[in-house]
Design goal:
The protein is mostly helical. The protein has ten helices and no strands.
């Protein structure tokens, strides 16, 4: 019930000026399809001097970046994920998310670099392997794309995206 959540979060925020209340408000805005407004609020919270510890800031920037991806605004998503990585440089999920922003702008080389870094930290990630296969496929590196796709299918044999990228890599 995002309408009710927005009302409650607004009241909570007005009474306490609590950062968590403001995050709740931003997430309610996003759920109400007011994505740019919610993402902007998240970015402002993460930028604030009292934005919390490094992990909290990284998480809020990550939420903002994912909202920007929902809104098909990859440039702002890229900025948010890059900011998050300043606070949590070893977080593979942030690298995978930033690779998705790079992919949306067609920067396949940087997408592949982020995915490779994520896979160095978490090598059995079928999703990251399928995404890297796609990045490599887009760069015409067909043998490595097929290798990644095969590995993704081995880890997640029913994953449709892994199966599709494997088929496309084999065809290429």
């Amino acid at each position: 019930k995002p309408d009710e959540a927005l009302e409650e979060a607004a009241a909570w925020s007005a009474q306490t000026h609590n950062r968590e209340a403001a995050v709740c408000k931003a997430l309610a805005l996003i759920a109400l399809k007011r994505v740019p407004e919610g993402a902007l609020l998240l970015e402002q919270l993460a930028d604030a001097g009292d934005g919390g510890d490094a992990g909290t800031r990284a998480g809020v920037y990550s939420q903002a970046g994912n909202a920007r991806l929902l809104d098909l605004d990859p440039d702002k998503a890229l900025a948010d994920f890059t900011a998050a990585l300043k606070y949590a440089p070893d977080e593979p999920d942030l690298l995978v998310d930033r690779s998705r922003a790079y992919a949306l702008i067609g920067d396949w080389r940087h997408a592949e670099e982020d995915l490779s870094a994520a896979l160095d930290k978490r090598p059995n990630d079928a999703f990251a392997l399928a995404l890297r296969a796609e990045a490599r496929l887009q760069q015409n590196v067909f043998d490595l794309a097929e290798k990644d796709a095969e590995a993704a299918v081995a880890l997640a044999p029913k994953d449709v995206s892994a199966l599709l990228v494997r088929g496309r890599a084999r065809e290429a």
